Amino acid sequence: MIEISGVSYKSSMGIGAMISSGENEDSCTFENIINDELTKQETERLPGKDCGSEKECIQEDVLSKIERNNYMVQKSFVDAGTVDSSLSITEQLKKYKEDQLLSKPGGDYFETANGKGIDAIDYNKDLSQFTTRVGKDLKDAGDNFVNIIKDMGIGAKSNYIDNDGNITSTQKVGFLGTIINFFKDFVSGVSFGKYAQEGENKPDNTFEATKHFFKKIFVDALFKDIIVGVPRSFIHIGEDTVFTCLNLVETIPDATIGNFKTGQKITTEIFDDTQVFVDFVTDVLPMGEAGSRTHAFAFNEGLKGLPFVYNLTSPEQGKTGDDWKYVRNTPFRKAIETVATIIPVRM
User: Fold this and answer.
1) Same domain, 189 and 49
2) How far apart are CA 25 and CA 38, in angstroms?
3) Helical H runs in the chain?
4) Three-state SS at 30
5) pLDDT tens digit string along 83-106?
6) Domain check: are 201 and 102 in the same one?
7) Can you give the pTM of this predicted structure?
8) pLDDT digits (tens, 9 = 90+) for 122-168
9) Together in a domain, 104 and 190
10) What does the buried/exposed string (b/e) look like for 16-39 if buried means 16 or more CB atoms within 10 Å of the residue's CB?
């Protein structure tokens, strides 16, 4: 907090100055300024003002400038706080739920489309019809079952909201896709970059070739593909299985109490929140996506690049890398994922 000595800021229309002559050292200094000003200027009464004396006129003018400057300083901090302040917890929670429900089929107001048509979030969707509610549950269950097979193979589709606020899709890496990537990285490493993958730059000299060897073998092939990639692909398969069962179970309340408006709302809230919670748990599991964000580090960022700190100080969106690209990394998400990865969540 910045304090300006001798000046008090008021939230009302005016800003008062609390300076009295001879009360303290600051006020004496201020009086000296006034006296110096008097010796430099000829006696001149400000037009339109009845100040009583030249000294009072100058003092009033100086105080007015101090008040205006103080107001601008205070306003700049208020404006900065408005721009940089985080969203309310309610808004952050809404973003978090949207990101989680978009990533997999299941949300009642979320049409993930599974590669067909345009993905959309429609909170005004009419769920009063029996066939609409139960049909949505069965469709989501079928899509998640298909995702089990896809995640065993190359990988299933996932949806996210990009930097422009548009719903976009990406394909995550499945188990078979991870194994394929391992062999590609391994071959690229042992060949010292001679058989570089598409988009990779081939090493120009012996030193670069040696660096390429160690990076592709130990970082990409062993760590990213095997240690992280294989467990993560099984996490995705587990998610698909749980969500398939969850969608099938949801048909029961949707077919019964869902015929009433209150029952429909309760069913949607319970099952959507359950899906969000399951997704959260799988994210914070060892080798889950949240762990990659919270444990990430960057040596060139100094203290801000340390694990946990690097993620906590990252922007909500716009950061490169798959760990951040597909989520809106709000302070709420950062907080719950950081706590959960420090104190592991167990089911």
Assistant:
1) no
2) 20
3) 25-40, 54-84, 89-103, 130-152, 175-190, 206-214, 230-255, 261-284, 289-294, 309-312, 322-325, 331-342
4) helix
5) 344 688 899 999 999 999 999 999
6) yes
7) 0.69
8) 888 888 899 999 999 999 999 999 999 999 999 999 989 888 888 88
9) yes
10) ebebeeeeeeebeebeeeeeeeee
Q: b/e for 142-153, b at 16 or more Cβ within 10 A?
A: ebbbbbbebbbe
**Listed residues 59, 84, 109: the one ending a domain:** 84
Residues in contact with 119: Cβ distance below 8 Å, sequence separation at least 6, in sequence order: 102, 111, 112, 113, 159, 167, 169
**Which residues lie across from 3 on neighbouring strands?**
none
pLDDT surpassing 70 at residue 31: no
Nearest to 269 by CA among 292, 253, 281: 253
* Cα(287)–Cα(225) distance, integer angstroms: 11
pLDDT at 45 over 70: no
d(CA 156, CA 161): 17
Check: CB of residue 59 under 8 Å from CB of residue 6: no
